[in-house]
Design a protein that fits this description.
432 residues
Length: 432
């Protein structure tokens, strides 16, 4: 068995790092054990205990969670990223594992009990959400409000605009591909149209869908993300030891650069190279869309308002988990020597399936609402066109293109052989 640093799924780690022998990069497992046991002993034995059962339960669950994260950070395998430090990405893995355990626990409860449990996190939770429909008045210019005729547009300009833009900027960097980002952006707007009969807050005005969301927020975010990728791809990654850099300013810049990538790999998904890769990319896009939809369905069935720390925490975990998972999946698809399905990808798929089961169990009355006929007709037509194009492309167009290219190579090699034979004949005649 290959050592961990030489495994195909650990290739980016094998790049030598600066300061590799410094204290910063050493594991310190024994030191970590002493700190861990010392902290637990202090809070369990020396801190004044409480007779409040609810408080003790909260403290116990808190230290169980922190202990799990701490142990996982120390003992899980490194992933594909090493900046700012491998322990940060092991923490991301540990957080996603803890989130999956919480989902599994939630899955075995009654939804009313789960809503009551959320009250212990925040007393303001546990109350039904107001169903918002943003498609009631779609006039861009409303003459009935002369004091503010563009009030419908200004009402949409809230903090969600900033989150949309920065979210798609980050997604474009995670996907490392313009077309994948663009297709996912358009697909989600179509999904909102298709599911607004189940979740009223999916209902938006046409200009909110296609101008404010698709063009301004998503489009501008994707464009900024692609420009960031251009910078990362063109950058020269040549790292120096911190202590070999003269001057405090240079050392400070080196510390800041620790939060940038150690190296960069450009993604070439090769969507139509072969049928296996085509459906693999489609599968990845489907997983991403399900994660996006679960965000809205979970907060709807558990009564979690959008501007809440629970949603923010899940979004942060999904972002960092997605970055690692996409890197692992690209390596798994592109490197024939990589036989291991990435550990973060494994946890991500597990989270997705568990979330879907939770939505099915707690929100069946919502997801079982029948689709309108025009939505069914659209998706039937889409599936027929998609499967038809896939069949035509991979059974006719692509093989024909390859046969043509192969024929050209054969004809070129035949011409080369004829030229070689002719040269040999001329040489033989001269010798004779």
């Amino acid at each position: 068995m290959l050592p961990e640093s030489e495994r195909p799924d650990q290739q980016e780690q094998s790049i030598p790092t600066d300061d590799s022998n410094s204290w910063f990069w050493k594991p310190h497992t024994l030191t970590g054990l002493v700190i861990f046991l010392g902290v637990i002993a202090y809070f369990a034995l020396f801190e004044t205990s409480s007779e409040d059962t609810a408080l003790n339960t909260k403290r116990g669950l808190f230290f169980v969670s922190v202990s799990f994260l701490y142990i996982a950070m120390i003992h899980t395998r490194n992933g594909p990223f090493i900046r700012p430090h491998p322990i940060f990405w092991r923490l991301v893995l540990a957080l996603s594992m803890l989130y999956e355990l919480i989902l599994i626990f939630t899955l075995f409860q009654h939804k009313d009990d789960v809503r009551r449990l959320l009250v212990y996190i925040d007393p303001e939770l546990g109350t039904p959400l107001e169903e918002m429909d943003y498609s009631n008045n779609c006039l861009i210019y409303d003459p009935d409000h002369p004091e503010d005729p563009y009030h419908n547009v200004w009402d949409k300009m809230d903090w969600f605009v900033i989150f949309h833009l920065t979210g798609w900027w980050a997604k474009a960097i995670v996907f490392r591909d313009y077309w994948m980002s663009f297709v996912l952006s358009i697909t989600f707007e179509i999904l909102e149209y298709s599911l607004e009969h189940q979740l009223p807050n999916f209902g938006e005005c046409w200009w909110d869908h296609w101008v404010l969301d698709a063009v301004i927020c998503n489009g501008l975010g994707i464009w900024l993300g692609i420009k960031t990728l251009d910078i990362l791809e063109s950058k020269t990654y040549d790292w120096r030891d911190l202590w070999s850099i003269p001057g405090n300013r240079g050392k400070f810049q080196r510390v800041l650069s620790q939060f940038t990538p150690q190296s960069w790999t450009k993604f070439d998904w090769g969507y139509t190279d072969d049928v296996k890769r085509w459906f693999s990319v489609i599968g990845i896009c489907s997983i991403i869309m399900l994660f996006e939809l679960n965000t809205f369905y979970i907060k709807a069935v558990l009564w979690i308002p959008p501007p809440h720390i629970v949603n923010y925490s899940r979004a942060a975990i999904m972002l960092f988990m997605g970055a690692v998972s996409m890197r692992e999946q690209y390596e798994y698809m592109s490197n024939p020597l990589c036989k291991r399905f990435g550990q973060q990808s494994w946890v991500a798929v597990s989270i997705l399936v568990t979330e879907c089961m939770l939505v099915y169990k707690f929100g069946y009355e919502t997801i079982s609402k029948p689709f309108p006929p025009h939505v069914v007709a659209f998706w039937v037509a889409f599936v027929v066109v998609f499967l038809g194009w896939s069949f035509w492309n991979f059974t006719y167009k692509l093989p024909r293109r390859r046969r043509t290219a192969s024929g050209r190579e054969v004809s070129e090699s035949i011409e080369e052989m004829d030229q070689i034979r002719a040269a040999r004949k001329i040489k033989n005649r001269k010798v004779q």
